[in-house]
Amino acid sequence: MTAKATEAQIVFCLVGSGAVRANPNRAGPCQLLRVGEDNLLFDCGRSAVHNLARFGWQAEQIDRVFVTHLHFDHVCDLPYLVLLSWNNGRDRVLPVCGPPGTDEFLEHSVRQAYREDIQSRLGHGKDLAGLQWVATESLGGQTVWSKAGCTVRTLATPHGGIANLNYRIDAGPCSVVITSDTQADDALAAFSRHADLLVCECSGPESFLRQQPWGTWHMSPADVATVARRAEVKHVVLKHLVVDDWSDDPAICDRMAEDVRAQFGGQVTVGTDGLTIEVHASP
Ligand SMILES: [Zn+2]
Ligand SMILES: [Zn+2]
What we know:
Metallo-beta-lactamase, Chain A
């Protein structure tokens, strides 16, 4: 990602376009937004840290992390990000926003799980200062961060009985909505109103989701189109793509995008790892 973000611009990078499955072509859920001088990371799933490095970013360059929910596909690389960031010389606290349980997850998966590793590194001179985080836990409906005309807000929606946050980032006139995994919910359309970019999970065609015990937790192409159309967003990026390797059908994601386009007049892009989009103010 070489583009520079200005106050009226967001640079978005889809770091990982996949989900649970160990698809070598799609890392787990992760998005990077460059807003002003800040690098904001949304989720940190499988191979996210590896992909950040592929696309030019080191762990210690991440200024803030926002977690959608604590399903493992969205947070399994977060302990690695925290520990690697410390190892690489991070010298400041890492703010982490997420649903209730986020601080406990980090406490268990970093401080407790790696207690002996941490003690060992302290023994050869590492400073604990770079291993500190401060967790902000949100139930949704809150502004969880603001700075210089940029705000990050949360919306809770149902997903598999777990606390679950969608995020909206407004920077000047530009706006991006990053959904969590979520079942279709009317509130998501209001939350996404007039967004320039809606980065939306789409875990499979309706026929596929109906066959899965977890299918009702997720959004089909028709669900995505309904949100995008009602919200009048400009551009939809499909993510959380598990069906191409699951079905062994490389064209299935393109057909999902066609299904969205059939009911939504804006731009629709199938997410790929490293997809980068600059969001500018409308002329
Ligand atoms: Zn997921
Ligand atoms: Zn999930």
